[in-house]
Amino acid sequence: MNEPRVSVIMPAFNCERYVARAITSILNQTYAPWELLICDDASRDNTLSIVKKLSAEDVRIRVYANQENLGELRTRNRLLELAKGELITFQDADDYSDDRRLELMVAEFSRNERLGLLASQVAYIDDAERIMRISKKPLTYDKVLSSITERNVVGGAIMMIRRTALESVGGKYRKYLDRLPYLDYDLSLLIAERYEAYALPEVLYYYRQHPASSSKIVSVDRIITEEVVKHLARQRRDSGQDDLMCNRLDLVQEYFEELRKPYEADPSRVYREFAASFMFSRLFGRAIKTAWLGVLSRPGYLVNWRTLQYCIRVSLIKWLSFRANRNKYIA
């Protein structure tokens, strides 16, 4: 592969606070043969005007605008159809990339012709861009295969995909996941089942943890969709195809609704599960607030009070530890 062009895909919706940082991180790349395709998804703020202003600085930036809000999946699919690169990657409009991201990832694709999907390590940051934690994504294909059916280890905006690998699985996201989460997880599973996939050891992507992020919205559908994506992967492993491939949408929906029943029986369950997720992400304030919503949802259920107590106790311990270490450093 000789200096392949990289297409960077960026959907943008109501992200005026962050989009300039995201675009600048691509403009600053040490690898030059790229194109940045940005599509504003009918934002109600100044996102589009900011994007247009920055696009005037570099002809490699192409800007599009949806007349109505199409959602992430359809916006990404629109940009994928317009992309010209041999390699395709993503940049969320509220995150940013390391300057070397494209250079190091392209070099790995050049080194390994069997590679279909490549990720990197991710630094999870707060609104002030302070690092909260760093990912430990698998560095070998064997480790990806041993863990990807349980969790999304290489999916997300960090993915760089060889075009031929993307085309082999349909060339776009599957429309069943329209307006649902985990579309990246589904795509990464499909590719990793056919091509090598793993992550580089370097931190090349900075993922902003903020309350408005879609991954931080408490939603039963978010939990259920992850399980549906895993279910479809198990079907492909066992028979080579899944219900979506066979156009059995009714069976997928039946499974989806079956998974919903425990959350209908216990409306507080979703708050407990998200509180646990927020604690793992070190969003302690968010975890406490979510656990409290669980208590309000079902105040007579003891496990909700235990969840709240746990979130407060661990958050306090972490805060006191941080204060002690900071004071020790200052001294």
Structure description:
It is a single chain. With 331 residues, the protein is of the alpha/beta class. Helix 1 (19-27) links the parallel strand 1 (6-12) and strand 2. It has 12 helices and 9 strands. 38% of the residues are buried.
List strands and helices in order, with pairings.
Elements: E1 6-12, H1 19-27, E2 34-40, H2 47-55, E3 61-65, H3 71-82, E4 87-90, E5 96-97, H4 101-111, E6 115-125, E7 131-134, H5 141-147, E8 160-162, H6 163-168, H7 183-192, E9 196-208, H8 220-239, H9 249-265, H10 269-280, H11 284-297, H12 302-330
Parallel strand pairs: 1-2, 1-4, 2-3, 6-9
Antiparallel strand pairs: 4-8, 5-9, 6-7, 6-8
Helix pairs in contact: 1-2, 7-8, 8-9, 10-11, 10-12, 11-12
Structural class, please? alpha/beta
Question: Which word captures the global form?
Answer: globular
- Which residues form runs of ≥5 with pLDDT under 50? none
Number of strands: 9
Helicity level:
40-55%
* Tally of alpha and pi helices: 12
Biggest sheet overview = 9 strands, mixed
Overall average residue pLDDT: 94
Strand proportion, as a percent range, falls in: 15-25%
Could you tell me how far the N terminus lies from the C terminus, measured between alpha carbons in angstroms? 54 Å
The gyration radius over C-alpha positions equals 21 Å
Order of helices and strands: EHEHEHEEHEEHEHHEHHHHH
Summarize the structure.
The chain is of the alpha/beta class and about 325 residues long. The protein contains 12 helices and 9 strands.
Keywords, separated by commas or semicolons:
331 residues; alpha/beta; nine-stranded mixed beta sheet; 9 strands; 47% helix; globular
